[in-house]
Amino acid sequence: MKGILNKGNEVSLPQGVRFSGIFYKSLTILIFFCVGFLFFSLEGWGQPIRFTLDFETADLRGWTRTGNAFNYQPTLGDNPTARHRGQPSRHQGRYWIGGYEKYQGLPGQKPGNIQGDGPKGTLTSLSFTIPSGTLSFLIGGGSSLQTRVELLVLGQRVLHASGRNTETMHRITWNLTPYAGKAGQIRIVDESSGGWGHINVDDFRFARAEQPPISISSNLTGRWRCNDGGSYFIRQVGSELWWYGQSRDAGATWSNVFHGRIQENQVIGRWADVPHGKIQNAGEMSLQILGAHKLRATRRTGGFGGSEWTR
After folding, report:
1. Which of 103, 119, 143, 209 can bridge 132 by disulfide, Cβ–Cβ 3.0-4.6 Å?
2. What distance, in Å, lies between the first and last C-alpha atoms of the chain?
């Protein structure tokens, strides 16, 4: 059954067709999540990043453009090789930022087309909360400060990098931890119209800060409490760890033992219930050592209930 287009360019439903309020609410929610899925990229540190990191969307979504240096971006494919430059771009995926290039795969464009070094401009990302960890990316093009990628913190440049006067990109890594928790932006800058007056960029990657290895000298021996309500009596001898655990009713419901080996900040071993309690299960267990006073299970089999220990 077709709708009718009225003079206001609105669709009028045929007589007798009605949608409930629940339908419209459900439709609104569905549209919201669909748009969110297409536009946002959830990264490993748990916050939404509202701009493209690798330009594989074939556009500059989430980036603000000034000037005309980036009017024909992102670039499709290895355009330097297409124009026989002898310096492959070494980009990731299909699309990347190539300030000298003028090929996006659009009608009228040909591989190898260029715009040259003349245009100037910037690309600035939407703001994000800087995570603890690192940011790495590919960079090429001009080596002067006039062609650069920079990290802005509260609008001020705190880190920057430039190319090596080659179209071939290389990966660099920034330590973000000193700026963690602050509002940041990434800005790609082309302020040059001279030789090598362009910048190449691709594949921004955020990575979490790694947990430092826990020294075996941080002895874990002692009485621990678990979020399963039980008490655990842990003994560490060198790189080995044992425990006896029991439910809050003095072990009448369950009692278990564990033996594992410490490998940096992990404990890997096996556990088993013992006949003092009613439950009789067994399985494997991997624990992450989060410090001298906290453990967290990263893998449990056999129906083990607890997941976090403190003392």
Report:
1. 209
2. 67
